[in-house]
Amino acid sequence: MYHTIILVGNLGNEPTMRYTPNGQAVTTFSVATNRQHNADNGGGPVKETTWFRLTVWGKQAEICNEFLYKGSKVLVEGRLTPDPDTGGPRIFNRQDGSAGASYEVTATTVRFLSGKENGEVEIPASTQGMNSQSAGAASPIPDDDIPF
Prior knowledge:
With 148 residues, the chain is mostly beta strands. It contains three helices and seven strands. A five-stranded mixed beta barrel has the order 1-3-4-7-5. The two termini are 28 Å apart.
């Protein structure tokens, strides 16, 4: 069996990196995706934001922690990680009492679509020869190369 999810969105917080007891890097951050559509009742446009919590492992985690920041635009490929208790997204109550859901994604590839300063991200030479699975495909994508 196989499934994959592709997300394009912006980081909602600064990445947080830590190391497992065996020394493997793990970085987490949230990504917001946006969709705009017309209301069913013929009303005006409706904006819909969905949040995803991302986990990135290994060298790719270190690169994400170094180059990403709150507001960065990224393209992420990965797999949904269901809540072990429910098999779906993690359900929680917001401060205002409304229900919310957290969609957990384990990233296999993270592509940087924006840089810290002027849209350029300098990738360390030590990672340039790595494939996208090991280095996170960390090179920026020019806007004219994005197929959507």
